[in-house]
Amino acid sequence: RRPTAASPATPFVTEASVEAEPDFDVVVLGGTLGIFAASAFQARGFKVCVIERGPLAGRNQEWNLSLDEVRDLVDAGALHADDIDGAVGTPGKYEVLAGADDTLVASHFGSVRAGFNDQEHGASGSGGALQEVWLPSVLNVGVRPDVAVRRARRRFEEQGGVVKEHTPCNGVVVGEKSAQVTLAEEVITTRLVVDAMGNASPVARQCRREANDGADPRPSGICCVVGTSMAGFAKDNSYGDLIYTNEDTRIHQERQYFWEAFPAMSLGEDARTTYLFTYLDADEMRQHTVEGQFEDYWRMLPTYQKHNADCLNSKRIEDALEDGDLILKRCLYGLFPTYKDSPLPTRWDRVLAVGDASGVQSPLSFGGFGALTRHLGRVTDAVEDALQNDALDRASLTLVNGYAPNIAATWMFQKSFVHPVSSQRPASFVNRLMRQNYVNMEDLGDDVLRPFNQDVVQPRALLQVLGLATLRDPLNILPLCYWIGPQELVEWLGHFGMMLLYDGAHHVLGKRVRAYSHRLPDQRQGFALRRLADAWEYGSGMDY
Ligand SMILES: Cc1cc2nc3c(=O)[nH]c(=O)nc-3n(C[C@H](O)[C@H](O)[C@H](O)COP(=O)(O)OP(=O)(O)OC[C@H]3O[C@@H](n4cnc5c(N)ncnc54)[C@H](O)[C@@H]3O)c2cc1C
Fold it and tell me: InterPro entries attached here (predicted)?
């Protein structure tokens, strides 16, 4: 509820005449995911520069994703196949493979669970017992970001790419011939600026502000995450939890907590990274602090992980830490604001966003790395196409991150996870919904279970899940609609309809439209048609 930071006196992006010839084809601002995007653009033959205000190093804590998402980096040309080393074998059930130090894949575990248990912590609400669904190879790989970034950077520089680290970008001037990027001690020019400055990108913020009459818009949703990486889980460190509840919704605190935990082999064989997260709206009356959520984390952790660490059965958490039974490696937290106007359309010529700055991940996800890798091939094709056909105007670039009905449709799920302030919604609402949907997805098979848990919504799979839910628990449909509310339902129906249309268009017209686009005399129009075909494919999850 703290007031948002004042708008900067001068906008980050301005428009003026820039006469200079471009030094680079692409300048990527921000170097976490930016280095992978830069390497992929370079692999298409472009002259690329990366600007990073800090060290270009990647954090020293595992990113959890799926092996196919790591391999997308190879397909896009950002890494080589032999860069993907370490724990790349196939782990058995309850087996965890560990990659040697300095390998890319640090952890690879055979079992990932989605579990819903309303009884473990506090009084039982909905009365159901623990229900577990074991998921097929989803988020079961822990990648060392520092190794991945170092390898991508080495190849990038060997091929002539330029990295400027400890160099903040202070602004961008967009002109007709090129764009000018202002750094502390120099100005460089480029044909295209790619914004990879993450959630807090000044470009994304300005974009949203300008679309909202000059004021920062309130986020449509927030995911608040706290957690730790700790060693001492020797009793059982053989599986991960993608999503797990151990209580119903806290009505008075207006939140439903979810757990997520993964073995973290880079920190030791008995180390786990554990997160407690919740979805919120930005209601001013909401009482919520990151610190308060951390207090809840410590209070609830022993119940959740007593199966994994013996000491949690007999000692208070403070004592377990003081006695060295648990070794705290680091504390983590994050607030992920999400906006309904995502993916974010660009407002200027020559400016395009990737990664968290582009908003291509759904409001349910707080793992943007997977979101980038999935889109990297598509974005790289689009950047190559735009540079070759001079489709660098705002109207063309907007099509690269255009409307995606399957991302828009996930807002209803986000909404159902948020307990509104002062709502009388039953405490068991979320657990009942999740149990039912996970059982349905499991019964429908891996083709339904897997994409949904990798943040990809496909219309026909969703139709099957909803159909089964209606058949199996028809009495829950009316209360569900009531608590979600008419506005959200109508919006969702619209996006769902668009998803079905995109699915049909992709299958019937996709290939033909792409072939026709290459025959057009004006290749800027060809570019637009190819982006339309991309939108049909990705907007209906058919790229999966
Ligand atoms: C606690 C936590 C756990 C997470 N766990 C996972 C996970 O397990 N798996 C997963 O896939 N994702 C995870 N994520 C999300 C993941 O970290 C982000 O999605 C990812 O880092 C986004 O990358 P990005 O490059 O788009 O943005 P960022 O990582 O935010 O990087 C932006 C970069 O831009 C630079 N920058 C900013 N302003 C400027 C400027 N003016 N000039 C130059 N450079 C600038 C910053 O220094 C930074 O390096 C987690 C995030 C958090 C907070």
Answer: FAD/NAD-bd_sf
